[in-house]
Every structure is written in C-alpha cells, then in structure tokens.
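Private note to self, pasted from the team thread so I don't lose it. Backbone tokens:
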C-alpha cells in the first residue's frame, strides 16, 4: 500500500467528533445562567481533545448545576444530593479506562457533601471536578448556602445570613494530598476554557471552582467584579496559564504566580476583594489512590474469587476447631 493510501486509511479509522456529537437536549437553565457557559467550555474541551463519548462519564449530585450530565451526549450519572464525589470514586475504581468528570453545586459539595469533598481531595483520584458556585441553592428556590456572602437575604435567612462565607479554594488547599486547584469565572470564556483544559490534563483530583452567576436568585451579587475588570487578578506563569494579548488588554491586573507555591496559593485563595483567576496550585507528584491500590489487579475473576474465598474462610467454623 502506498503512503497516501495508508494515510487515508488512518484518517478513516480515526474517530472524529464535532461539537454537536457531545450536545444533548436543550438546557433548561434560565437565560443568563452561568451554567450555560460552563457547558459550552466543557463541550468544546471534549471536541478538541477528541474524547470518545463512550469512554467519558459526567457524574453529578442534585441541583440546577447537577443537570449537567443530561446535556452531554456521553455517559452520565445524575446522582443523589451531596453524593456526586463518592459515586465518581466508585466509577473511577471500577472503570479506570473512563474520563471521569464531576459537576457539583455549592450546596451539593460544600454543605451536604462536605465530608465527601474533604476525603475526595485526600484520596486524589484522577477526575476533573467543577464546583458551580452560585452562592445559593438555585434549584430549591433560594436558600442560603455555605458560600453565600454574609448578609445574603434568602428564604432561610430573611434578615440576612449571619456567618462569613466558606471559601472553597481555601478549604481545598488545606487538605492533605491536594494536587490541583484553579478558579474561573463564567463570564471570561477564554480563561474558563484554558482552566477546564488544564484541569482535564492534570492527573489527580482537579478541583475547579467556577464563579457562576444565578440571575434568578442573586442577580447582582457579582456585579462589582463583572463591571470592573481591575478586580479580576489574572494569574499567569510559565508553568501555569499564559493568557492571550487580547485578554490582557481588558484584564490588565496580571500576577505572576508559580502554581507550585502552596503558601502563596493559600494567600491568594483568601482574598475577597479581588477574584484570582487561573491555576492556584498544581503538584503532579501527589500519588493517586487508584495507583496506590493498583485496583486493576482486582479485576481478574480469579483474584476476585480467591479474595472472596479467603475472606469467607475467616468466618468459617471448622468442625474440629469447634469440638
Ligand atoms: C438529601 C437531600 N436533601 C435535600 C434535597 C433538596 N435539594 C435539592 S437541590 C438542593 C440544593 C441545590 O443547591 P446547589 O447544590 O448549590 O445547586 P444549584 O441548584 O445552586 O446549582 C437541595 C437542598 C435533596 N434533593 N436531597
Ligand atoms: S435558578 Fe439560578 S442556577 Fe438555577 S438555572 Fe436559574 S439562573 Fe441557573
Ligand atoms: Mg448553588
């Protein structure tokens, strides 16, 4: 076979996907909801990375944001409120060949699911996690969440919420084995895409907090940052992201930040006046739980059978021992 024919054949065998191949249904989110921008960035990532739909799964909990898997033409698991992460961990252990993504809301992750979140960071299993942080319970019509700013008026806090908001980045950066933490905002698509892509390429638990607008229940909460680009700090570094010249024209407040510097990442995460956007922390050397466990070995039927028999034998009462 000549060179040209071989190339043509290779091209035919190579699976190519268009954006539409990852799109499913018409999202039911309100118009202007930041979830739409996150969906667009993730579908673009799937197309650009050529992710095979049958090798990709989106896992979510319950909430507006957790409707995400319905809009991806891949595998999906729209789970139980607060339990997106343990479901994703199960998928990861049973099917290490899949690309695992998680979509979780601030209520889902930081309230009812908080214990799972902390342990998932420590286990550092290879998955890409998007925290859609709209600072409110959206689906259930406006109850304060742990990330609601102090003073937020809601159905559960009619006189304004009493406590300071929990900072998801600070929490994540405080847990043992943290390996990737980034922050994006839904209204800067270029950086949202670059961050989603960097998170996907990191091997380990990649945690991306996405500041997500909920025009239905908190229409003005992000206005100070939305209308003043100077209040966005664009993080850049040779080992982080390198935003385009066009973006730098608008977002002039740039900061060189080395993502291997954990203490500096923690300082940046605790800022509330500015929103740092980019990669705060990355450590590719943190081992993944599934590699430490070498879970692949558990998959041979012989090993499973002998393991089960050994386990059952522990509880067997042998007649001579009993007598
Ligand atoms: C065990 C359980 N508790 C409570 C609920 C009710 N519930 C559904 S979604 C939700 C909060 C959703 O908020 P968030 O996770 O921030 O997602 P959003 O809708 O804002 O995207 C609650 C309390 C539930 N479905 N299951
Ligand atoms: S209620 Fe808020 S979070 Fe839910 S779809 Fe509407 S804008 Fe989005
Ligand atoms: Mg929410």
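Design output:
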């Amino acid at each position: 076979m000549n060179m040209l024919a071989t190339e043509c054949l290779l091209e035919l065998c190579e699976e190519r996907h268009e954006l539409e191949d990852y799109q499913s249904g018409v999202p039911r989110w309100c118009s202007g909801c930041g979830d739409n921008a996150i969906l667009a960035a993730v579908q673009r990532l799937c197309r650009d990375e050529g992710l095979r739909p049958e090798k990709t799964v989106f896992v979510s909990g319950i909430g507006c944001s957790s409707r995400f898997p319905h809009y991806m033409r891949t595998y999906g698991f729209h789970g139980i409120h607060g339990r997106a992460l343990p479901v994703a961990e199960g998928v990861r252990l049973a099917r290490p060949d899949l690309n695992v993504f998680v979509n979780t809301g601030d209520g889902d992750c930081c309230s009812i699911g908080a214990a799972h979140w902390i342990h998932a960071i420590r286990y550092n299993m290879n998955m890409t996690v998007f925290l859609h942080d709209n600072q409110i319970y959206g689906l259930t019509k406006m109850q304060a969440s742990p990330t609601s700013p102090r003073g937020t008026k809601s159905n559960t806090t009619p006189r304004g919420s009493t406590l300071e908001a929990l900072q998801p980045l600070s929490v994540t950066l405080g847990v043992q084995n943290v390996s990737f933490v980034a922050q994006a905002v839904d209204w800067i698509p270029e950086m949202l895409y670059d961050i989603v892509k960097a998170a996907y390429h990191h091997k380990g638990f990649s945690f991306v907090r996405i500041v997500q607008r909920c025009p239905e229940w908190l229409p003005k909460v992000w206005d100070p940052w939305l209308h003043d680009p100077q209040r966005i700090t664009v993080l850049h570094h040779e080992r982080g992201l390198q935003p385009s010249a066009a973006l730098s024209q608008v977002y002039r407040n740039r900061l060189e930040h080395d993502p291997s510097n954990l203490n500096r990442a923690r300082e940046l995460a605790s800022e509330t006046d500015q929103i740092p956007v980019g990669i705060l922390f990355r450590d590719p050397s943190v081992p993944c739980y599934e590699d430490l466990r070498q879970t692949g070995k558990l998959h041979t039927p012989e090993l499973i059978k002998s393991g089960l028999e050994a386990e059952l034998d522990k509880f067997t009462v042998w007649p001579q021992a009993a007598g």
